[in-house]
Amino acid sequence: MSAPEPVVEPCAAAPMSRSLRWQLIGIAAVAIIVITVTVTVGLPDLAQLRNTFAQYPRWIAAPIFAGVYAVATLSPLPKTVFSLAAGALFGLPLGLLAVWVGTNLGAVAAFAIGRALGKDGLHRVLGKRAKTMDKYLERKGFATILAARLIPIVPFTVVNYASGAASIALPGFVAATALGVLPASTAYVSVGAFGVNPNSWQFWSAVGALTALTVAGWIAVVMRRRSAARRAAEVTEL
């Protein structure tokens, strides 16, 4: 008579650590505060931003604006109105510098939060988007981030947090972000700067650049979906 086979118990899911639990609670609290303020106060429009910062000297207003932009970058709130306002307030050179500095400061802060959360924590917060980004970042981190900045297929905020949780080094992330955000930032700030004269060649050049970036983004999305469908079909045939 042979000995009875041992019963294999199913593996239980690993419990969430206390530190991760508190990190997720903190992220949820910040998200609730941001949503509450947004719903209660509302996003500022271009006129409100201009009135707020116009009362300060430019050398004071520009750094403050960059700080506000950095904080806005931590949330999924649309940042377009801030970029347009930077152009209207400070013009192309200074406005672009304020947006560029604010964008990079906010991106580094989100990167640090993503690294503190780790992959497990970030997947719980962002879900499928973070897992999708992981696949690309693990293969070609710098190129993936640069492409995502140049042609924003994935939301800017998601890229920041997912990059922190991935294995990419901070210098590579900073370099790819600093280079990649320049074209779109220049176009948006230029629209704000030259919007007072919509007949100028500078204004229409900026509009053309934004249109080209948008079309390129849609083409990239379509190509990626077709490629994914083709790979899925090949796996099914096997």
Runs with pLDDT <50, length 5+?
5-16
Count of individual domains: 1
The radius of gyration is: 22 Å
Give helix % range: over 70%
State the end-to-end CA separation: 43 Å
Number of helices: 10
Organism: Nakamurella antarctica
Main location: membrane
InterPro entries: TMEM64 (IPR015414), VTT_dom (IPR032816)
Protein name: TVP38/TMEM64 family membrane protein
Describe this structure in words.
- It is a single chain.
- The protein is globular.
- Helices cover 79% and strands 0% of the residues.
- The protein has one domain.
- It is mainly α and 238 residues long.
- The longest helix is centred in the middle third of the chain and has 47 residues, at 80-126.
- α1 (18-41) runs antiparallel to α4, α4 (80-126) crosses α5 (128-139) and α9 packs antiparallel against α10 (201-237).
- Mean pLDDT is 75; it is low at 5-16.
